[in-house]
Design brief:
With 171 residues, the chain is α+β, with helices and mostly antiparallel strands. It is built from two helices and ten strands. The model has no long low-confidence stretch (mean pLDDT 92).
């Protein structure tokens, strides 16, 4: 898990305010005690929200994914690979997807960011070009899943095992 930009901006803002309030107090400038209490309250609230968001993100199930890959590819020719994503959450979800392409295959169109809607299947596609002949195994793809409050994001690996063979281009 890693913090999102939203959490870092809120944290930097509140810590910057704390530094300003502390500097004013150190310089002898009068600062109302209620301002410091409000600042501490906001920092505590942010901490509680961050812990709640992290706990809910850990328990959040990953979306389901399925890869559609041609059984054989022509050497040096571009082909299309499709990945379908679906989730059962109550609200839309923005995820970033990256497919782990084996060495020896060139790709275009990854990573992709997509908004998944509840109960709907979303189809992503990217292009793939073999650089050498042989058998290639696709093991997994990776998604970046945001927390319910948007304060954290988690990298999840989805096991999607597929394979393809690359033959010379007979066309």
């Amino acid at each position: 898990m890693k913090p999102t930009r939203l959490l870092l901006v809120w944290l930097a803002t509140l810590l910057g305010l704390s530094i300003v309030l502390g500097a004013c107090r150190a310089l002898g400038v009068y600062v109302a005690p209620s301002l410091q209490a409000i600042n501490w309250g906001l920092l505590l609230a942010l901490l509680l929200l961050a812990v709640l968001d992290a706990a809910r993100l850990i328990r959040r199930p990953s979306p389901r994914a399925q890869r559609q890959l041609p059984g054989s590819l022509a050497l040096g020719r571009w082909s299309e690979v499709q990945i379908s994503l679906q989730h059962d959450y109550a609200q839309p979800l923005n995820v970033q997807l990256f497919d782990h392409v084996p060495d020896g295959l060139d790709f275009e169109g990854l990573p992709q960011t997509v908004e998944l809607h509840p109960g709907q299947r979303h189809l992503l596609s990217y292009r793939l070009r073999p650089l050498r002949r042989g058998h290639f195994s696709f093991e997994r793809c990776e998604i970046n899943l945001p927390g319910p409050l948007g304060l954290w994001s988690a990298r999840r690996y989805l096991t999607l095992q597929d394979s393809t063979r690359v033959y010379p281009d007979f066309a």
